[in-house]
Amino acid sequence: MKPLRWGVIGAANFAEKHMGPAIHAAKGAELVALATSTPAKATGFQAFAPGLQVFDRYDALLADPTIDAVYVPLPNHLHVEWTLKALQAGKHVLCEKPIALHAAEFDRLIAAHDAAGKLAAEAFMIVHHPQFIRARELVQGGAIGRLVHVDATFSFFNDDATNIRNRPEAGGGGLRDIGVYTFGSVRFVTGQEPDAIPYAKLRFENGVDVFAQVAADFPDFSYSATVSMRMFPHQQITFHGEKGVLRLTCPFNANVFDVAELTLETDGLVTTSERWPAVNHYVLQVENFCNSVQTGADYPCPLEFSRGTQHMMDMVFAAGGAPN
Fold it and tell me: Would you call 97 a catalytic residue per the annotation?
């Protein structure tokens, strides 16, 4: 089976450091093209992908019939536009999160990928990592008994006014950048959706949220989260049941923030740990995407799942009294 030929739309730093190399390394994929309005930015990509074709316009890359799929790492407010354009050009699309800024926008994306007969998905890499697949097995399999509460934290410090995360016109803000992980991870592991957001405290600076403290009610458990881009880097998620506690100490940036590790504590203070020091979830994400395209297998993170995460985020913004 021929590998899927990929192009990248936009020479984002994240694409150069993480997703570009992942596409290049993934089985069933071949990184062949990059579109950037600043040709000098292609140098970093060509260092690991010699022979990379460089386009100076996004439309020109989409018009190339030899390219099968595109990865879109553009600023958040451009994701829907360029995902739709890529689908209309007959390309499969993996777009950075959040693929849309409002849950209702997913309806257009789902209709477009159905009409095109192409796969379109949000690049939510953590669901491809074995630590989250294992966490889901343990929680839903009853390893910690009845789940009572989930607590999640994700923070980093970035006050650079020129960074897109701090620009409201680009769809910036901490929730859209990393809140998707604290919300989506609990939905993935538990298989449940929030009933209500009884509490959301949001702090804004220059039009973007920089701190959020959230409480949510799920059908069978309570949930709390802290998300900030004005705090020292930290991440964790804890699933606390009647008969045990499951902790992920590096759930979101595996092997960047720390080594991916899952710790289960049960009756009698018995603790077991599982670690994945060599797993790259970006590579797994690309491989799963290619496999779905080539074999028709279900993709682990369909647009319908991502829509649910965005719906939860919309609920948080509404509960926090912020325009969404």
Answer: yes
